[in-house]
Each structure stands twice: as structure tokens, then as C-alpha cells.
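Course assignment 3, question 2. Fill in each field.
Student: A.L.
Task: Predict the tertiary structure for the chain below.
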Amino acid sequence: MGKRKRHRQASLWVETARLTKGPAHPFYRRLNQILGQHGFDGYVERACQEFYADKLGRPSLPPAVYFRLLLIGYFEGIDSERGIAWRVTDSIALRDFLGYSLADATPDHSTVSRNRRLIDLQTHQEVFTWVLQVLAKSGLLRGETLGVDATTLEANAALRSIVRRDTGESYKEFLTRLAQASGIETPTRAELARLDRERPKKGSNDDWQHPQDPDARITKMKDGRTHLAHKAEHAIDMETGAVVAVTVQPADRGDPASLEETVAEAMDTLADVSEDDQAAEGLGNEVLSELVADKGYHSNAVLTGRQELGIRTYISEPDRGRRRWRRKRAEQRATYANRRRIRGERGKRLLRRRGELLERSFAHCYDTGGMRRVHLRGRLNIAKRLLVQAAAFNLGLLLRRHLGTGKPRGLRRAGVSSLWAHFFAWIVAWKARSRSWVRKLVTSTPVCSLSISSWSPSLLVQVFVDTRSRAPAAAAEAGWSGCKSGGPPLAALHVNDRWARTGKDP
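Answer field:
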């Protein structure tokens, strides 16, 4: 029995051949291949050239490594830059993804934070646009119909630390001054709490702010809690689900007001994407011709403004009762035209798909992506991180086409799904072993992709064979089992339910 060495003297020199070499993660290996095929490293080096000195200063963090670190934060669901740095230090696969060996020192979290502060927001936007161009070249971006929705992100600030905008005094000092003005010389904690409950409008953003994060606003979260937060708004392609624009705005800003900035950002981004001739061919003929949103965005100004721009709206209409349209002919025409569109079949289909695609982007970017509570302060810093977060989400769409999953953890679920799919396929094939013609069909199937539906008096069989190197999870979701390239063909036999239960002919 071997025993762990409790005291070990570290070696002064270690040969490179003796260093542990782990297998590269197939997800990150494929991601590096995609980035390399489209020249990602050279692009970001040219875009960030002005932020680096040729001779002065210590050795810097390469911009390609910096953006890959933020991509890791999305794919691994890590919220803070400190956590990203720790994860990279421990993982051999992530070291290989970044281009570091075991003998190399990985970047410290302070280095990542400093690079984020030095590289401006426009450069992060250019990297986001570059990813959209890659999607357009792959046929994953159309840009004709966009859906818009917003969510709240919990700020890295506590309500108990807010101060008055006019005097700078804390909340407790403010209550103490009110108590003394009402005749209580030395108020207790219970008296201050009672005075606070009796005072109306005690959490107004016009009067209070956080000293370290003035951009955070007091708002009610989705779970009912009141907290300091920011508002993140997405514009997505309704055909492919790609995020076209993402903006960070004050949490107390209404949806109709925030829509203007997001739509303008989406128009500018699509114009930048179309500057690449090959990407422009992948876009639709009428870019940003339709807009889909929920009832929170419904207003006369939004409808008339979009109509003037030639954009057809599919915005859910809240129940406002009978409306008066005197001297509002333009607003009336825009509202009635929107109402006709949302009541049609296409409008209903778009509204259903809007909720599916937008909530999916929020779940991936913020819930599983680790950004529901931000660890940065200031709207500018948060916008930089969210742009790379949305770019990683878009890269996940491309990876889902190649691997069948958009995140590394999906490959683990794919393995379990593949085992169950193979098990049930074997069970059904075993039940049909007495049908010699079925056995002959399966064993003689060539190594290629095919789909066969055949009828027999005693058995209804559907055979699905796939030999492409894609993740088994996508195959299992589609109802069939895949086989690896070069391996024997696998068949999933779906037997008629009646025959499976009784053994009689259907």
C-alpha cells in the first residue's frame, strides 16, 4: 500500500518531459480552432495596439489572452475576475486553451482588472461585432426581425451604505436628524425603525445614491427584494437567437425610454457587421425591418417612432380600456396597425418565440453564466464585461452547430444521454432479433447518414443512423442515437407501441 509523502522537498530543476500533460478539453480545443480559423488573435492585437507600449513597462497580458479569460468566465459560470484567475491556475485544459504550459505563470486577477480598465469600451464593442461577423458568415445571423427585453442585475453595493445626494449623510444619520427634529434627543434603534416605517417615499433615487457606485439604482428585483441594481437590455435575432446588441442602463429607467438606446445600438452594430462583404451576404435583405417586444414597451412614442423609421412593430398591448384619439391621428394609426399585426398568426408566433429566445439568452448570460450579481462597479466596467459575455453566448451558437452543445458542461450531459440512448436502442433491437430482415437491414447499413421508414405486417421500424462527429446529446434530443466516425453504425428502432406491449401485429 502506497503512502502519501507528508514532507517532500521541491525540486530545483524539472525537465519539461517530466511535466504532467493532460488531454485538451474537446470544447475549448474546438473553440480555439474556430478562433484561429477566423484570425481572432491578430484582430484583437491590432485593435488593442494603442493601449500597449512597445518598450516601456513590464511584460503585458496579451489581448488575445485577456478576452479568452473573459470567455472562460461565461463558459465556466464564474462571476468574478479573481475566480477566473484561480480556475485557470488549477486547470490544465484551460491553460492549454490560453496557451500556457505548466511551467508558465498564469495571469493574476489584478492584471486582468487593469487590462479591463485600460482597454476602452469601443474596443470591446469591436470584438463583439467581430463575433457577429463570424456568425453572419456561418449563416447564423439575419438581422431582419429583432426581439428586445430587459432584466435587472444586482449591483455590487449594499443598501445600508447609501448616502444623501445633497448632504452626503448616511441613512442612519439622516434618521437621527429627523428624530431629533421631532423632539427625540437620543433616539434608540427601535425608535429610528418606527420613524422610518412611518415616513413615506424613503427610497427615492432622486435623493439617495451609493458612494462607490453612483450608477446603481434602488429597484425591486424579480424575486421581490429591493436592492441596488443595473438594467441590462438585449436585442436578439428572432431567427437564430444571436444577441445583436446589449446595453447597460439605469435600473429605474422605463422600458420605452431604454428601447431607444438599444435599437440605436443594434442598428449601428448591424451596419458595422455589413462592412465585411462576406458577412453582408449572410444578412437579410431588410435589416431591422421588424421589432418584437412585450407590453412593457408599448407606448405611443415607441409605436410612432418605429413607424417613422419604417420598422414594423409586434409589441403586446396592455389592457388600457377605451382610449381617446382626439388630435392623435398618427398615434392611432400606429397603434391600430400594431394591434392588427399581433393578432395575426405571424404576430402570435413571434411573441411566443420572443419569450423563448430572450429568456434563454438571459439564463445563459446571467444565471448559468454567473453575472446575475455583478462584481464590478460603474456602468462602463459592467458594459465591457457584458459585451464579452454576449459574444461568448454567440460563439456558443456556433459551437452548438459543431459539437451539439454551447457550453463545456453540456458535453458531460451528452455522455449520459448517449449511454441511455444506446441502452434503449439495444433493448429494442434485442426485442426484434427474431426479425431477420430487420437484423439484415441494420448490419448492412453503409457508414453514412440516412433515415429509413419501413412497414412490415408485424413490425413498424424507423432506423436513424448518423456517423458524423457531433455530440450525442443533440442526437438523443432528436430521438435517435449517433455513432462516431469510423465506428459501426448504430440504429435506434422505434417499435409500434401495441406490438411492444402484446407482441401482436399492429
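Instructor remarks: Strands lie at 145-154, 163-164, 208-209, 217-220, 226-237, 243-250, 290-293, 312-315, 450-455, 460-465. The radius of gyration is 29 Å.
Grade: pending
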